[in-house]
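Hi team,

As requested, here is the filled-out complex form for the flavin-adenine dinucleotide run. I kept the field names the same as last time so the parser does not choke. Let me know if anything looks off before we queue the next batch.

— J.
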Amino acid sequence: MTPTDRIHRSVDVLVIGAGPAGLAVAARLAAAGVGRVEVLDREQRAGGIPRHCDHTGFGLRDLRRVMTGPDYARHHIAAAIRAGAVLRTGVTATGWAAPRTVDITGPTGLERITATAVVLATGARERPRSARLVPGTRPAGVYTTGQLQQAVLHHQSVGRRAVIVGAERVSYSAVATLRRAGAEVAAMVTDQPRHQTHPARHLGTRLRHGVPLITDATVAELTGRERLESVRLRHRDGRTAAIGCDTVVFTGDWIPEHELARSAGIALDPGTRGPATDAEFRTGEPGVFAVGNLLHPVETADVAALDGRFAAGPVLRHLAGVPWTPGPLPVRVEAPLLWISPNRLTPDGPRPPRGRFTLRTTRFLTRPVLTVSQDGRTLHRGRLASTAAPNRPFHLPADWIAGADAHGGPVRITAD
Ligand SMILES: Cc1cc2nc3c(=O)[nH]c(=O)nc-3n(C[C@H](O)[C@H](O)[C@H](O)COP(=O)(O)OP(=O)(O)OC[C@H]3O[C@@H](n4cnc5c(N)ncnc54)[C@H](O)[C@@H]3O)c2cc1C
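And here is what came back:
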């Protein structure tokens, strides 16, 4: 079959990615009576990352209850199907034939789908060892948290003694997964001066599993021929030390799954590296929206699902023929801030969902003062009530946006 033999169909809304964000937007749109809402996922089963996370902690913000990852995924799948959305799995979106026309490949072969609205909900992934440029040999026993969870799900051996690189929320999930699989955790290692999760989670892990936390250290080298034998650490003062282990898990260090957005020529935000979007989840490409962790690598699953819910309104307005006028002003952060989402704004437009922007920092900032300015003019200045920690969200209220000049330069956010 040549590309021209593709079956070509049209739908009202094509959602790419059946994780919490994609399923939530599809459920809302189908429930609102949109004709054909089709959701694609390259995995054999819908549900996104929570499907592999056999621990509790999902759903508080969107469903007002706490469930395991698989139960949470099942809930969102059932809601989308019940509302009338069509879910298709084992189907990968591979590129664009034209704006809002997506080429896909799946069990029935090649297809081309044109949609009135396309919603990108492709999520984010942890950067693997190769992308982190860690020197040393290339033995077995090297994972990201996602790979570890998949291996455990498929009853593969994940070693007996592990080192976890990272000390953020997902790193603690990796500890729990390893312990359930019967492996000892020799240490958690972070380049930060302290952990970056909820203090109770850190304390619980320490007391329950006796896992030491090594701070201000990076991985200098992996050693081992066939299987990993040790991880050599470099401390901030230059000292190095080796820890014997047969498994290492690289956690966090997220990158959005932005390849599809990039191949459409959609502008990416330099901070998040996901599509630049405004408060209505609109990208720079007419009719193409983006939601979930593709926009903010990474928030929890319930935040991704809430994105999906909020995005349904703007998608409905687009389907009703409201002109495509995405926020003209870029919003940029300066170091040590890492990113802000959303990162485009319309001064007389709506505020972001829940009336606030979400940010990340690269280092701990004790009750920083956040300043918002445009062309040297201060639009907002306010002290954060708590410490801003790397790998954890903090928020900036959005009540200043009406003061920005739609024809001015970028809006800048600094932290002192
Ligand atoms: C190991 C781990 C543990 C976590 N633990 C928790 C936790 O305890 N609690 C919590 O709230 N959150 C947790 N999270 C975060 C949570 O899972 C994510 O925030 C959530 O899944 C994001 O939803 P999403 O819909 O944006 O993306 P995802 O869930 O990542 O879904 C994206 C989907 O898009 C599909 N896709 C991507 N590209 C294509 C393509 N080209 N064609 C077709 N399909 C495509 C993927 O297959 C995937 O199914 C964890 C994350 C990880 C990695």
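Two things worth flagging: The two ends are 59 Å apart (CA to CA). The longest strand covers residues 109-120.

Thanks,
J.
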